[in-house]
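lol ok so funny story. i was supposed to be doing the assay writeup but got distracted and ended up predicting the structure for this chain instead. priorities right. anyway since i did it might as well share w the group, maybe its usefull for someone
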Amino acid sequence: MSLELLHDGPKKARATPPTTHRYLCAFLSVLLFNSALPASCFSATPNNKSNWKAINEVLPSDYYRQVYIDDNCDDSNTKTKQSIPWDVGGPQPCVKNEARTGVFANKSVLDCGCGLGENAQFLAGNVGRARSVTGFDISPDAIRRANEKKTEESLLSPSQAENIRFRVASCTTLSESFSSSETFDIAVDSACLHCLSDEDAMLYANSLKDLVTERLFVGCFSTANGSEGWTNPRRLGREDLERYFASEFWDIRRIEDVW
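and the output, tada:
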């Protein structure tokens, strides 16, 4: 599911929302995506001392901090180490598809819940690339590894790598991590929003309006996935997106299937 929203400012009237497709894609200019990942991908055990069960509840924030610790996860997906459930080994397909439109060209981009930074690297190095990309994640280990990857994997030229910045920050306390003078043309949320509780999602959405000046893409699991087999991350529908982003600051432009 993908959603696209445009940041209109507090005095501009919202346009009539588009027709909802079966699989929602949220664009503020917000983006949502669908996938069919098995339940086991989201019921992880990072180590023998902690048991993180994704059963009828939102996973605790400590899970997202610890899943990136080197001893608990491994990019090679070995049997002895816990892989990162949402890592597809590169940028998310919905981000790649949107980049083909040229929307990120010469823009400042905020990558929300950036993880290991694959989306950020792609946006900074892609043809028609972004002017700058700032990624944030709640996990210090994710940020450390993202900084290592951007210089070690030779996917970017030195000048492109310099245009990427990573920092530790939480979705629910963005005002503590970003100054009032920091703004971004576009924000990308790929598989972050649906990991938050309803209350935290509202706080997060409210904070983004102060950071984003043009548009926001949100990618998340859709309610079209059904209710059997797995309960985390949450499935979000159009009604959820409209509730989180229904204000004079956002104009929902697209809700469509992207996966």
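The two ends are 7 Å apart (CA to CA). The longest helix spans residues 140-152.
back to the writeup now i swear
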